[in-house]
Every structure is written in C-alpha cells, then in structure tokens.
Design brief:
By secondary structure, this protein is mainly α. Helices cover about 70% and strands about 0% of the residues. The protein has 5 helices and no strands. It starts with a helix and ends with a helix. The model has no long low-confidence stretch (mean pLDDT about 85).
C-alpha cells in the first residue's frame, strides 16, 4: 500500500496523506495548501479510486489495514 501511495500524483498524495495520517479536516487541508475544499475532496476521491483499482488486482482482497486507508 505504501508503494501505491508513493505513486499517486503529487498533489493527490499530499492531500490524501494529510487527510489520513494527520487526520486534518478537508477545510484545514484546503487552508494549508491554498486550494478549495472541493479540490481537496476531488483529490481524496481520486486517491481512493486509484488505490481501490490497484488493490483490486490482488486475489486475496483487502485487509482491515487497507480498508482503513480507503474509507
């Protein structure tokens, strides 16, 4: 999962990690990065979609740890 996250587009990865690792709100992320809340939400959706698609290729499914990152 870490490798997949590192491969996300830069801004998408930054927003996703701020959301998941530092648990900032979308508004806090938007303020910090000087982007709109809507843009933050779009980046998070994009990251989740990319990760879900990539992980969907694994035959054993998603573990609880991975599910945390995608919720």
């Amino acid at each position: 999962v870490s490798t997949l996250i590192r491969e996300l587009p830069t801004q998408c990865r930054t927003v996703f990690l701020l959301s998941r690792e530092t648990q900032l709100s979308n508004k806090e992320i938007a303020d910090q990065l000087h982007i709109s809340v809507n843009t933050v939400e779009q980046h998070i959706r994009k990251a989740r979609r990319i990760l879900r698609e990539a992980l969907g290729n694994y035959e054993f499914g998603i573990s609880a740890f991975v599910a945390y990152w995608l919720l």
